[in-house]
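To whoever is on call:

I kicked off a structure prediction for a single chain this morning and the downstream step that reads the tokens threw a length-mismatch warning. I double-checked the sequence; it's 260 residues and nothing unusual in it as far as I can see. Pasting both halves so you can look.
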Amino acid sequence: MAATAAPVFCSDDALAYRRSRTRFAPGEGLVLDEAYRLAHLPLVAPDHPAVIPAKVGRYYARGRHPRVVSLVLPVPQASLAAAPAHAELERELRVAPFAHKIAWDVAARRAGRLHATLCGSLAVGPAAEPALTPAQRTALAGFGPVTVELRGLFSGNVNLGRLYLRVYPECRDGVDRLADIQRIMGRPPSGLYVVGLHALTDDLDRREAASLAALIESWWDRPILRLTLDALWLLWATDDQVLDGGVLERVPLTGTADRD
């Protein structure tokens, strides 16, 4: 019997990570941006003077928002915790100069809901329900398992203050498999699939920012965990950290859906 070919993952050239990363200026610190101070800082450091409690035209109120339902790629916490590379990354973060500015307690609270968003805000409002059509459900059920590789560490150019792992999807016949799922859902391919890992509670001074930049660089090409997933989640939340939220429905990529 022929051996199964190892998966080929999308390269940085095919994805959006490099052009979307934080640009650290030499000799300067990292300032939490407005988006982060509105949506995340109220959740991780509610008494911080830089918290933006609310803003006209935005639906956040001290980090909370109306219920939204999104289609996401789940990351099993047990698998991540068992990965030696992840344990090594966590050790390096805990001894970094900015370790005291990481909301470790928040990371522990959301450990069971780690994910990368594929299609955000499918439904919004108090009675938000899944917005998958029968045709979309049929297409996803026949899609087949998805293999991805997590790499890290990552900080983007929006929501400065969040630290992520990057998801590299399998490239099959030259096509990003996660982009195919976005197309099924009527969404444009994003090339950006990030797993929220940690949140900062304050700006970083120049030494702390340099340390973070060095960590990101040293971990850029290092695999953290490889996963083959046979289902996605419909995840509901009333905040962007998903501290108040949960799995509304498991959406299989083979078989039929399971509602909670």
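Update from on-call: the warning came from a stale cache, not from the record. Cleared it. Sanity check on the structure: The first strand starts at residue 64 and ends at 74.
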